[in-house]
Amino acid sequence: MPLTDVAPLEATIAIDAPPARVWSLVSDLTNMRRWSPQNRRTIVLGGETRNGAKFVNINRRGLLVWPTQGMVVEYEAPRRIAFRIKENWTIWSYTLEPTGTGGTRLVSRREAPQGISDLSVGLTKTVLGGVDTFTAELQAGLEETLAKIKADAERP
């Protein structure tokens, strides 16, 4: 049975850059390798990020390297992008909201509306330190990723 009692993970950051600038960064999935502590490379099949686009991630944690397959399930420029990871069924998203000062509020979220696959839960328990440990690592990774996006977006 898949793990179905999965609380969403979420992190939010205020960025002193307009939404168009932030969108240009987060909507290019190949940028994820610069920000995510696990992602080493993203290859968008066909080269264009859009609704329905498929991509492959190469992830790394220590000596462990693994691929995942994703598909963009929401692409609402310049407000929201979300993608689903095939192997574990999770949906990752970035939502942009303009602030009253010309900046951007960026929200990153991981949800599992259909639960997390047996395959992913089994690997998490046996290879990634357990569900609680890995979930805490993912939450810290969300926050680290947003801090790096903020630094890139605010860079002149």
Automatic annotation (TrEMBL):
It comes from the Bacteria. Gene3D superfamilies: 3.30.530.20. Pfam families: Polyketide_cyc2 (PF10604). Coiled coil: none annotated. InterPro entries: Polyketide_cyclase/dehydratase, START-like_dom_sf. This is SRPBCC family protein.
